[in-house]
Amino acid sequence: KQEVTQIPAALSVPEGENLVLNCSFTDSAIYNLQWFRQDPGKGLTSLLLIQSSQREQTSGRLNASLDKSSGRSTLYIAASQPGDSATYLCAVITDKLIFGTGTRLQVFP
Amino acid sequence: DADVTQTPRNRITKTGKRIMLECSQTKGHDRMYWYRQDPGLGLRLIYYSFDVKDINKGEISDGYSVSRQAQAKFSLSLESAIPNQTALYFCATSAGTGGAMGYTFGSGTRLTVV
Questions:
Q1: For the segment B44-80, what is each residue's pLDDT rounded down to a tens digit?
Q2: How confident is the model at residue B1 (pLDDT cuts 50, 70, 90)?
Q3: Which of B99, B101, B105 is closest, CB to CB, to A44?
Q4: Most buried residue, B4, B10, B37, B54, by most Cβ within 10 Å?
């Protein structure tokens, strides 16, 4: 059974720091991996989709990498801002989407 | 307009009542999903459908049923609601095998069963 783990579970940092959020999965037989952001009580916003043939994707201050062989993905956030405060979810894609438990990020001014 | 629309956005219902949550999409995706989210438990898959004639149970299907009325519409029913079905419910869509274009989620329905 595929299990997806995210570390840390929570993170509180001052504005301006560069951050790394970690995601690990137990079965490397995935198609793709997707990172989402969720604000409290709100829906999921897709941040980055990494296809299995890719090793990384970038969007603005966000960069996500994927190493299927080691079962790991990282989300790098450069120059964090208070508006980045949210829960970040990674999800591996097999024939369906399997979520990690998330990292709750707080960026304070 | 949103690509994936869920109705209602919020609902309070009584124990034992039947309730239907609706989802419609304009993405043209063939695959649709229902998830529920509970604090501390993350998102769990309830049901999924790969096309109009295909319905599959997810990891927590007991107490729920679904109907795929058309490619664009996928509804979730609680036949007799109970308080532990209080949660945030999400509908999602994807295209083809492996979600090569990623998954798109609706804004969610917050359901409270009293």
A1: 999 999 999 999 999 999 999 999 999 999 999 999 9
A2: low
A3: B105
A4: B4
Q: What are the chain A neighbours of B23 within 8 Å (beta carbons)? A: none
**pLDDT, tens only, A5-17:** 999 999 999 999 9
The residues, any chain, with a CB within 8 Å of residue B109's CB and separated by 6 or more, are: B6, B7, B8, B9, B10, B11, B21, B88, B89, B90
With an 8 Å Cβ cutoff, is A11 touching chain B?
no
Residue B63 contacts A where some CB pair is shorter than 8 Å: no
* Amino acid (one-letter) located at A109: P
The reply to whether A36 touches chain B by the CB within 8 Å rule is: yes
How far is B114 from B111, CA to CA, in rounded Å?
Answer: 10
Question: In sequence order, which residues have a C-beta less than 8 Å from that of residue B40 and are 6 or more positions away?
Answer: none
Distance from CA of B80 to the nearest CA of A (A): 25
Question: Of B64, B80, B93, which Cα lies nearest the Cα of B15?
Answer: B80
- Give the closest residue to B25 by CA, choosing from B90, B77, B87: B90
